[in-house]
């Protein structure tokens, strides 16, 4: 499916997975980013298809030399919010979808004070994995199962007392 992104220059066409929400990229990203280097090339360069590593490299190289790179990256992160990597599109500020997601996540964790309470091997750790769209690690799965078993046993005990 080909879709036109809101805010892109006329004729800027990018590929989007069907049905996915459009988040983020606008060329040039922000009116304040007047020196955006990506304005000088075909927008497609910044939306490489999976496997188009050479194209992605060109985009990254342009970003590397772009005078508004830092502002552009912040702009993208702000626009994308807590979107999952598959709901982020293109290369912005030199970072691809996954990289921007990881930056968002690292910042969120830092802001949360990297809670000691959701370390791996705990039930909160299990929920942290889930919230981040990851498969919980074995230690967290074990912790979750143990806690769940405990809760069920206590519930059974309460029932037995009530009966
Ligand atoms: S950093 Fe990259 S995506 Fe952002 S304005 Fe510059 S060239 Fe465009
Ligand atoms: Zn874990």
Q: Could you list the spans in which at least 5 consecutive residues all have pLDDT below 50?
A: 1-25
Distance between the termini: 61 Å
Strand content: under 5%
Number of strands: 2
Number of helices: 5
Which value, in Å, is the CA radius of gyration? 22 Å
Helix percent reads 40-55%
The spatial strand order of the largest sheet comes to 1-2
> What would the average pLDDT be, to the nearest integer?
80
Decide which structural class fits the backbone. Answer: mainly alpha
**Rough shape?**
elongated
Q: How many discrete structural domains? A: 2
Task: Identify the bound ligands.
Answer: iron/sulfur cluster, zinc ion
Most strands sheet = 2 strands, antiparallel
Summarize the helix and strand pattern as letters.
Answer: EEHHHHH
Explain what the structure shows.
The N terminus is likely disordered. The protein is elongated, with a radius of gyration of 22 Å. It is mainly alpha-helical. The protein is 45% helix and 4% strand. It has 2 domains: 110 residues, no CATH class; 47 residues. A two-stranded antiparallel sheet has the order 1-2.
Which key features would you list for this structure?
mainly alpha; single chain; 2 domains; binds zinc ion; two-stranded antiparallel ribbon; 163 residues; binds iron/sulfur cluster
């Amino acid at each position: 499916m080909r879709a036109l992104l809101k805010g892109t220059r006329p004729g800027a066409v990018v590929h989007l997975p069907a049905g996915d929400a459009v988040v983020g990229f606008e060329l040039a990203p922000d009116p304040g980013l007047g020196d955006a280097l990506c304005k000088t090339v075909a927008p497609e360069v910044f939306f490489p298809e999976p496997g188009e590593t050479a194209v992605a490299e060109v985009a990254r190289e342009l970003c590397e030399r772009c005078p508004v790179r830092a502002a552009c990256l912040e702009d993208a992160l702000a626009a994308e919010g807590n979107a999952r990597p598959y709901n982020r599109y293109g290369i912005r500020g030199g970072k691809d979808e996954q990289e921007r997601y990881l930056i968002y996540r690292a910042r969120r964790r830092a802001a949360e004070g990297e809670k000691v309470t959701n370390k791996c091997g705990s039930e909160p750790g299990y929920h942290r994995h889930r919230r981040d769209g990851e498969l919980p690690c074995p230690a967290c799965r074990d912790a979750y199962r143990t806690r769940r078993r405990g809760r069920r046993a206590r519930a059974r005990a309460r029932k037995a007392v009530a009966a």
